Amino acid sequence: MTIHRLHIQGVRNISDARLEPAYFVNIVFGDNGSGKTSVLESIHILTHGRSFRSTSSKNTTLIQQGLHALTVYGEIGEIHNHVGVSKAVDGVNQIKISGEKVTAVSELAKLSPVQIIDAQAFDLLTGSPAVRRQFLDWGVFHVEHGFLNVWQRVQKALKNRNSLLRSGKITDPIQMSAWTREFASAAERLDEYRQQYLERFKQQFVDILAKLTDLDDFSLSYHRGWDKARSLLDVLGASEDVDIKTGFTHSGPQRADIRIKLGKHNAADILSRGQQKLVVIAMKLAQGAHLQTFKEHKRCIFLLDDLPAELDSNHTHKVCQILEQMDAQVFLTCVEPGELLEFWNNKDQIKMFHVKHGQVSGELDE
Ligand SMILES: Nc1ncnc2c1ncn2[C@@H]1O[C@H](COP(=O)(O)OP(=O)(O)OP(=O)(O)O)[C@@H](O)[C@H]1O
């Protein structure tokens, strides 16, 4: 998808900015603290209803001090869908797509697949399995129409099963059996989706990684969260006593992980910081490439916060070259755009936005 217009109001130090981004490459530059990341955050709010760096559920750090709400408007996609997201200090959020109020954030996410590469992206290698499950599920969500429904069934069944387990004994065996069967059935489907996706994804990942690094013997392996030789229903039956004793479900897709290795070692334990960044970038670019191949050329939007950090010029150049070959819309932030600008062959497709004390120039004259 493509963001054609963006109107930011009250996001951190950006009071009011209108941008008409380029179809391909957008370079957002300025001094430290000028508001560059806040532009990327605004795009994330527009496409996901939330920031990628704020942990406050009350929106208070995100909304400009002294204001009671922020709003981000945009025109997105081939038919220029009008999208508006507002967030208020009291925690009330509102999403509108083409004038209609929307309650499910997944409606926004469906419109625009967004990949973020920032300082937190390292978590994909060094963080908990939850980060890698989220990565995997992002990919499946955008290519498999039935995935969201199955994922929601798993969450609901797991929640109900765990709440029955929490009492420490089974007071209602019929309910317990019903939720266990529902959980196992939805989980098996979810697992199939994940496995199929990862098998297809791996090839694209290997190709992109080879363009960026000379790392040999790199492997990604999927662990589904229970014994691969048995059905989940069998495993849940066999471990019911443990589940009752501890009060939660031990096996299932909520324990899935992708193990990322170099030879026998965990990649995170052996790679340099720059190499880790290249692996993470390769994984994210491969998801964008996969989307293009398997979803009728659906375009991904890449938000790259301070791409040059930790990378030498040669590798930064290579990342830009891969991005240029993909059909994607790219937003990059940097302090000094000089060198970064040189890494693109077709300069005509680049727009520059200078951010200074929350003011964005290169914006629309209106
Ligand atoms: N709620 C808020 N209200 C007003 N200003 C804020 C609020 N939250 C953060 N700020 C300020 O807004 C700016 C946000 O900066 P941002 O993180 O977007 O900068 P940046 O250009 O990406 O910087 P860097 O290069 O250092 O990463 C900072 O100056 C910060 O102090």
From TrEMBL:
This is DNA replication and repair protein RecF. Its main location: cytoplasm. ATP binds at residues 30-37. Gene3D superfamilies: P-loop containing nucleotide triphosphate hydrolases, RecF/RecN/SMC, N-terminal domain. One of its GO terms (biological process) is double-strand break repair. The keyword Protease does not apply. The RecF protein is involved in DNA metabolism; it is required for DNA replication and normal SOS inducibility. RecF binds preferentially to single-stranded, linear DNA. It also seems to bind ATP. Residues 3-357 form the RecF/RecN/SMC N-terminal domain. The keyword Ribosomal protein does not apply. The gene is recF. It comes from the Bacteria. PANTHER family: DNA REPLICATION AND REPAIR PROTEIN RECF. Keywords: ATP-binding, Cytoplasm, DNA damage, DNA repair, DNA replication, DNA-binding, Nucleotide-binding, SOS response.
